[in-house]
């Protein structure tokens, strides 16, 4: 059995701010949003807005403006730090755009505080400016928090997400391996049909109720630059509640399924499928309902925390390759063809089941790579995340891009 791991996690709790506290939070968010937009402007004018330069500009701005001085310097510095990290990350990740301005009408409030900017006294979260907010303590904190993020969701509820240290219990020793192939008809098809994640269609069941709320919003929408009516705001809140309910159901199903996989397998081969391109296809609505990305993240994160060997396998040619003999078909299979038949060995299986077995075979042979690109194998060893790029020979067609 593996030893326990001391890890950093987030504990999230519901907040119950009163009218005064809610107004103070929104005012603080207005200052932080203005600083974010100023940082975006600095980049557009040709300057290089590093965190050090932005901190100096913040000091000068606070000296000139009493409006900024009324807010928390900790929250404002954290906003600029988040922007600098996002800008730095955009240069490293191909295809990731630069940070954009935050508009008031379509950006939800989010404030970051380090340990110097908040405290917990009398079971309340206390923020700068004398703001005290009751917290719904659904469970006790595992340790003293080092930072907190206060944010509002689409429904209008406020939450506090604390960063704490937690001792993770050791995962039981298990054997066996499993391969996971993603899809829309069945969200996750595995090598063992017992562990499949079916398409449950939570958003589809809520579609009629959501459509009614959206029609009600359309009828009550006022002209541009006119204050919306209370009826419009109620309809907007109802639509957000319906969408949030479906999202929470998908998250719950993904967590239960991922725990079942991890508790019974030591090696997990996951298709490194990127579902973003489905948003531009006719399958966009059903793909969003399947929530492939959420299930994939949950499986990988839980697997690494439990100390399992998690291997990401490129999806190219996994559907066209026979899992029995490794022969690749000479023609692509259309989406309407749901049964795979190998012309070489005569092996017949479901299209997605064969792909899952091919993904597992690729991971077991240690070749989660593609031509000149080596796909990283992510694992959790000795209490730390390990990402390695194995040098593997290109000897077979299985798993090649």
Automatic annotation (TrEMBL):
Task: Give every Cas12f1-like TNB domain span.
Answer: 304-359
Taxonomy, superkingdom: Bacteria
Q: Which UniProt keywords apply?
A: DNA recombination, DNA-binding, Transposition
Q: Is the Cell cycle keyword given for this protein?
A: no
* The Probable transposase IS891/IS1136/IS1341 domain, residue ranges: 162-273
Cite the InterPro entries for this sequence: Cas12f1-like_TNB (IPR010095), Transposase (IPR001959)
Q: Which family does it belong to?
A: In the C-terminal section; belongs to the transposase 35 family.
Name recorded for this polypeptide: Transposase
